[in-house]
Amino acid sequence: MNLLTNKTVLLTGGSRGIGYAIACKLAENGANIAFTYRSSVEQANALKAHLEGLGVKAEAYQSDASSFEAAEQLVKEVLETFGSIDVLINNAGITRDNLMLRMQEADWDVVIQNNLKSVFNLSKQVLRPMMKQRKGSIINMSSIVGMIGQAGQANYAASKAGIIGFTKSLAKEMGSRNIRCNVIAPGFIETDMTGELDEKTKENYLSNIPLKRMGTGEDVANTALFLASDLSAYVSGQTISVCGALNC
Ligand code: NAP
């Protein structure tokens, strides 16, 4: 399928995990990919080469999504190189888990800055170019934890719930400009992020997932493809859970 031929996608956090899977899936559908990473230089270069091998244009940018200035510079560079940004995917995210009694102020601040402020930073920069194009799709990566909460993740859950409110508001503001904004809320997906969890926590999660398996990056990427493409032309302000029915 070539659902995204000649479209440019700007994706944060493409070097690993869910972002990596999204970059590959969208490139397989013809999209040119500008993706960011924070520190994984080797993985980023390998992904760029892989995407180019699929016959699309690809660039890797070492750019901290939590910095407003870096986001401004990034979008400028991407527009110079690619000419347009048709789809923005705010995927970059981190965890600093701890029970509230032990959570430090710094754990709160860094998670809000990286997970929520980053979504503001990048969205703010792409709105004007998307308005000029009279079209755009913004996809923000939340989590079912932002919908149902999780002990030990108050900072992460707050950041991910904030993303949902932000997205619904932006969808209402920008609908008349044909800019759609949606949320993906993954459940328990096999990546480095969940690799950090201990076996007991993993087993506990698994036993509660009706589909009886962890999700894959590709499961999430398929939903990103839908939301990035015209298949979802009348879908905006929505949160799609990709979680094996964990949250119902
Ligand atoms: P991951 O494997 O830890 O990968 C995170 C990616 O984000 C990496 O590419 C990392 O770059 C990048 N990144 C982190 N902070 C960044 C920053 N400030 N600026 C630019 N890039 C940054 O995570 P993942 O599991 O794929 O998660 C991706 C997204 O899905 C996150 O928003 C996460 O909260 C969300 N999510 C994940 C799950 C899950 O089960 N895995 C569930 C629900 C939601 P480097 O490689 O350079 O570090």
Structural class: alpha/beta
CATH level-four homologous superfamily name: NAD(P)-binding Rossmann-like Domain
Number of domains: 1
Name the average pLDDT: 97
Q: Determine and state the CATH class.
A: Alpha Beta
Q: What kind of sheet is the major sheet?
A: 7 strands, parallel
What is the helical fraction, as a range of percent? Answer: 40-55%
Order of helices and strands: EHEHEHEHEHHEHHHE
H/I helix tally: 9
CATH names the topology as Rossmann fold
Could you name the ranges where pLDDT drops below 50 across 5 or more consecutive residues? none
User: Major sheet: order of its strands?
Assistant: 3-2-1-4-5-6-7
Describe the structure.
- A seven-stranded parallel beta sheet has the order 3-2-1-4-5-6-7, sandwiched between helices.
- With 248 residues, the protein is α/β, with parallel strands linked by helices.
- Helix 1 (17-28) links the parallel strand 1 and strand 2 (32-37).
- The chain is globular.
- The model has no long low-confidence stretch (mean pLDDT 97).
- The protein has one domain (8-242): Rossmann fold (3-Layer(aba) Sandwich).
- The chain is built from nine helices and seven strands.
- Helix 3 runs parallel beside helix 4 (105-133) and helix 4 (105-133) packs parallel to helix 6 (154-174).
- It is 48% helix and 15% strand.
- The protein binds NADP nicotinamide-adenine-dinucleotide phosphate.
- NADP nicotinamide-adenine-dinucleotide phosphate (NAP) binds next to helix 1, strand 2 and helix 7.
